[in-house]
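User: Predict the structure for this protein chain, please.
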Amino acid sequence: MAIGFTDLTSTVRRPDKNMSAQSQPKVRITDFGDGYQQRTAAGINNLDQSYSVSFSNRTKEEIDDIVAFFVSKGGVTNFTFTIPDSNNSGETAIKVICASWTQIYKVGDFYNCSASFKRVYES
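Assistant: Here is the predicted structure, written as structure tokens:
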């Protein structure tokens, strides 16, 4: 599959190339004094990952379909998002939720949409 996700109309939606990823491990830290610490992973999937994606200069119909897809998922239901991955044949499919999105009304019939995806470890 190509980088992106498949929406309600079975169309692959590809984000702009300026997509960014942020990762932050969840770690439990115990301080013992004199600067000594013990760190352990907090859980089995302890890496919080989020992705900022944007869809710029798209037609009104395309942005409406993208936003309708996000609304249908409601920030609760996950969907498959394919990301670039040079270690795995060029791409990897992960499960995400759309935590938030912004629709921007541009000039004429061209619109923008930006969204924040959060990786989830579910089936």
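Helices lie at 60-73.
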